[in-house]
Structure formats: C-alpha cells, structure tokens
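About this split. The held-out portion is used to measure sequence recovery: a designer receives only the structure tokens and must propose an amino acid at every position. Recovery is the fraction of positions where the proposal matches the reference. Here is one held-out target exactly as it appears in the evaluation file.
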C-alpha cells in the first residue's frame, strides 16, 4: 500500500542496493532473501515529524540511541528531532553532532530541526543559511513560542531564501500563565490553573496571517483546538502555504484523563474538550490536518512523579502512535487505512522535502515498514527511556513486524534485529 501513488495491491516489493528496485508479482530473483508478508501491510517507512530525542544535554531523559530504538519498534524509519535540547540546535556544529551521533548509534534516519532564534529566546534569528548548509530540514523554536510578531515575520521571509519550513509552536504565554490543564470545568473541579484554548488559537491565527503576508512556508505543530483548526482551514482556503499536524493524544483522549491528577496525561498543549477532540478528527478527515506526529517527549520519573502543577509537560509516543492511529482512526471508521498512512508517510515527506522518502516507487530509498494491523498490542513495554504515557495498560491494534532502513533489516518479527 503506497499512499503517495494510490497503489493498493497484493504483490511483491524487491529491494536491492538500498533502493526499491521493483513492484509487481514474483519479482525477486531466486537467490534473494524472501520475507513472507502474507496477510500483512507493506508500506513506505513511517515518518515522525515531531520528536524530542533530548540529546545533546538531557541524556537522562532520552538519547539518540534509545530514541531511535523506540522509533524502530514503533515502525518509524525516519524521525525529525526538535531543536530544544539543552545545547540548543542553533549552530552548525550542533547539527553536525546530531548527524554524527545518529550515524554512530541511530537505528533509523534522523533529521534535525534548527532553532528559529538563538537559544530559543525569541530575540534574535539564527543563521538560517549556515543551518541549512549543515543539513537542518526545518526551523522551529518548539517548546517555546516566537512571541514577537516582527521576529516571526522576519523568520518566514528569511527562510524562503533557503526553502526551509517554519514550524510554529503556537502559544500566547501571557494567556498560558502558570496553567497546567485546559481552562474550564475540569480545571475548576481539580483546583488547577487553566490554560484557555485561545492561548493556542490566537497565535495560530497570527502566524497564518504572517504567512499570508510574507508568502512564507508555515507548519503548525500539535494543533488541538476547534479555533486553531478553523483558522488553519480558512488560511488554506485563501491559498496560504500552511500545513498542520496533530498528535495521537488529541484524537484519542480528552481533558477527563487528568481527573485523578495523572501527570502522565499532562502535556502542552493540554488535553482538550470532547468537542475539540471531535474537531480534530473532523480536520483529519477533511485533510486540514494532513500530518500526524507523536510529539514524543520523554521525561525522567522524578520530573513526572510529583505534584500536578510541578510535573513536566509531555508524553512519549514513538511506540504508541501506529496502534493509536489504527485503533482510534482506522478501526473506528474515521479514516481508511490508506488515508491514515498518508499522514505518517508521504505527507510529512513531501512537506519537509525528504527526497526518496515516503513512497514505494521504484528508485526510492528502501525504507519499508511491514505492519500487522490485527495484532494486539498491550501498552507497557518501552524501548524509550521515558515511561510517561497515559496509554499504559490499554489494548490496541496494529504492530510493526519488520522494518527496513536503507534496505537493511532493523526490525524482525517485532524485535530489533540485533536482539
């Protein structure tokens, strides 16, 4: 099944020299190694556009080694890692470090995102040209919002010269304040300071208007509210070059998940109302949201095993995204399998300009995920260093059984090949 071309058939995929060499029936030569995928889905390698690998600087939370192992187990052949590490990815040397460590220790492709502003402080733009030359695939201050509209306008204009996508963490910090859950009935009952949905929606609307004014390429990260989705849809209808992603927790959970002060369900943006969840599902259906990304954000036990107000924002997601997509979108009847897979294969590849990724076409990189959509997964065993997941104990459907990265087998029968 190749969402990029609409291909959906029973047949063979022949891999050779790190590339897809052919599609059809009885293609491989007699001396080839044969993987029997009868009854399984052979698809382009999954791509996660929003991952926090934490290295360099917070190797106690995650490393490129542990994070890419988790990605492989989750079916991802490529991850795009954000710049908000403790040594911020705002200089070419740090980009080079990420790439070299990924070559040495990574199990899947790693593509770094560079910071928009120095130190993620929102004051001064980084050197987009030098970061582009070093190999960043996009620019983002994720984890912090570029609050200064003048700086964001300049970023959208400047990035055009290098063909780079600007990824917006849309959050009005003045409205967010010290909140930890969505403002409303749940925050009132729990006695917690709330975060109004307008904290996200107002910045989404601002950035869409700035993208329209500058002609820049904009992507909205972790969209979660009805107001944000309306602003995105209206901008897209006007021809603004804006795309958007959501994360599995926003179509799978609501704010009720924090009723027992479960810090594993504390994230930013926070879990929203049932109406917002339905709006997210609707936007996935009409392709306002063309991309699904995990927003994998591992934390240590100490950072999560504390009071709700003091606990860190974020959950892990590399190993749960695929089964959540299959269970809560495909099996629930919201999307076809091909529609769902497009959001984690060809759509992120095309938006980021990842040449040779996201398709099974001949000549593409032999990044392949083989999925058993009926396999039951009980959430709880992780290769990530993080354990901060609100889905622990849930029974879901869908599991990656085989994974090929550049034609090399990384996952075999659901286990890392070196195991």
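Reference sequence for scoring:
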């Amino acid at each position: 099944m190749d969402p990029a071309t609409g291909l959906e058939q029973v047949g063979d995929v022949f891999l050779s020299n790190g590339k897809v060499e052919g599609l059809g029936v009885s293609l491989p030569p007699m001396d080839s190694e044969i993987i029997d995928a009868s009854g399984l889905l052979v698809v382009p390698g999954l791509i996660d556009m929003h991952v926090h690998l934490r290295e360099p600087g917070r190797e106690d939370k995650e490393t490129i080694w542990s994070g890419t192992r988790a990605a492989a187990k989750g079916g991802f052949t490529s991850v795009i890692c954000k710049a908000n590490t403790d040594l911020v990815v705002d200089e070419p040397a740090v980009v080079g470090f990420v790439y070299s460590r990924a070559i040495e220790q990574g199990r899947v492709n790693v593509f770094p995102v560079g910071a928009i502003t120095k130190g993620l402080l929102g004051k001064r733009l980084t050197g987009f040209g030098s970061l582009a030359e070093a190999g960043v695939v996009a620019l983002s201050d994720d984890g912090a919002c570029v609050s200064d509209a003048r700086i964001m306008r300049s970023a959208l204009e400047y990035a055009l010269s290098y063909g780079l996508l600007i990824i917006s963490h849309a959050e009005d910090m003045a409205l967010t304040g010290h909140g930890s859950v969505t403002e409303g009935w749940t925050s009132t009952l729990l006695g917690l300071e709330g975060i109004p949905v307008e904290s996200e929606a107002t910045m989404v609307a601002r950035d869409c208007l700035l993208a329209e004014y500058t002609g820049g390429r904009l992507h909205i990260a972790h969209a979660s509210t009805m107001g944000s989705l309306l602003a995105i849809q209206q901008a897209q209808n006007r021809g603004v070059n804006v795309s958007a992603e959501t994360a599995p927790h926003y179509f799978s959970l609501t704010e009720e998940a924090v009723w027992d002060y479960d810090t594993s369900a504390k994230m930013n943006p926070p879990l929203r109302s049932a109406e917002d969840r339905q709006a997210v599902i609707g936007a996935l259906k009409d392709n306002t949201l063309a991309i699904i990304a995990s927003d994998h954000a591992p934390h240590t036990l100490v950072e999560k095993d504390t009071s709700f107000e003091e606990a860190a924002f974020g959950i892990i997601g590399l190993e749960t995204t695929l089964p959540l997509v299959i269970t809560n979108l495909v099996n629930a009847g919201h999307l076809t399998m091909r529609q769902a897979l497009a959001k984690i294969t060809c759509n992120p590849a095309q938006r980021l300009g990842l040449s040779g990724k996201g398709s099974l076409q001949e000549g593409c990189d032999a990044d392949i995920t083989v999925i058993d959509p009926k396999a039951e997964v009980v959430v709880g065993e992780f290769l990530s260093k993080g354990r901060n997941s609100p889905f622990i104990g849930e029974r879901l459907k869908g599991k990656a059984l085989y994974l090929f990265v550049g034609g090399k087998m990384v996952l075999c029968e659901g286990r890392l090949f070196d195991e």
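Annotator remark: The chain has 14 helices and 17 strands.
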